Amino acid sequence: VLYGKDADVVRPMASTTKIMTCILALEYLREHPDQTIEVSDQAASQPKVHLGMQKGEVFYIKDLLYSLMLESHNDSAVAVAEGIAGSVEEFAKEMNAKAAEIGCKDTHFITPNGLDAEDESGVHSTTAEDLAKIMQYCIMTSGEKEAFLEVTRTKEYQFQDTDRKRTFSCHNHNAFLDMMDGALSGKTGFTDEAWNTLVTYAKKDGKTLVCVELRVNGSWKTFNESAELLDYGF
After folding, report:
1. Which of 12, 92, 130, 207 gives a 20 to 30 Å CA spacing to 107?
2. Are β-strands 207-216 and 183-191 bridged in parallel, bridged antiparallel, or unpaired?
């Protein structure tokens, strides 16, 4: 750790949650590459930001990962979770098990999309230190690290439901990827409880750095501060 400030303070993490959702899905798809999911009421009813999927529509999970990571769609996150584990609750168990395996000490997942939530075990939350460990796993340790980078670095992606009745276009909204030389991946997030959050991964001159910002007041402040921190690290 090159720099830390309140790195072990537990906070909500908003859509940076989707980093874990994505890597679990990619590892699952290694054995089930053409897995589909029929959209449930729960998935279709997720609040904005959402893809706008309708109950009964069928999608390939691999397509929904671009909706998840490029547009941060909340309904796609729930559909992916249900397609892999059968329910959001069961998927959250897998998220927490993976977090423990990675070495996270203060992370509690409840939802696959990062919307503010609370259950009998606490609130949906992590620490900057734990979130850095999760990102490090995604880009350096997981067998699907190349696939993770491919999804999160994609600028534009288009797909259809399996019946080819509707076409969807996704644009990568992580502005940080164009802000800094060497920025390779990351995920933004925002909720009322979490404020702005940002995880970034950058590589330059043979050095690989991960930067995590939680509870920042303003999206551009997260981008600018992350750039400063990564410059300092390099």
Report:
1. 207
2. unpaired
Q: Mark whether 18 is an active-site residue.
A: yes
Q: Reply yes or no on whether 185 is catalytic.
A: no
- Say how far apart CA 62 and CA 40 lie, in whole Å: 17
Q: How far is CA 15 from CA 29, 35, 43, 80, 171, in A?
A: 21, 24, 16, 15, 16
Q: Which of 40, 72, 76, 125 is catalytic?
A: 72
Cis peptide before 10 (omega within 30 of 0): no
Q: Catalytic residue at 45?
A: no
Q: Is residue 22 very low, low, confident or very high in pLDDT (cuts 50, 70, 90)? A: very high
Residue in 99, 74, 78, 102 with CA at minimum distance from that of residue 88: 78
C-alpha distance from residue 7 to each of 16, 104, 130, 212, 231 (Å): 16, 12, 8, 9, 19
pLDDT by residue (tens digit) across 53-80? 999 999 999 999 999 999 999 999 999 9
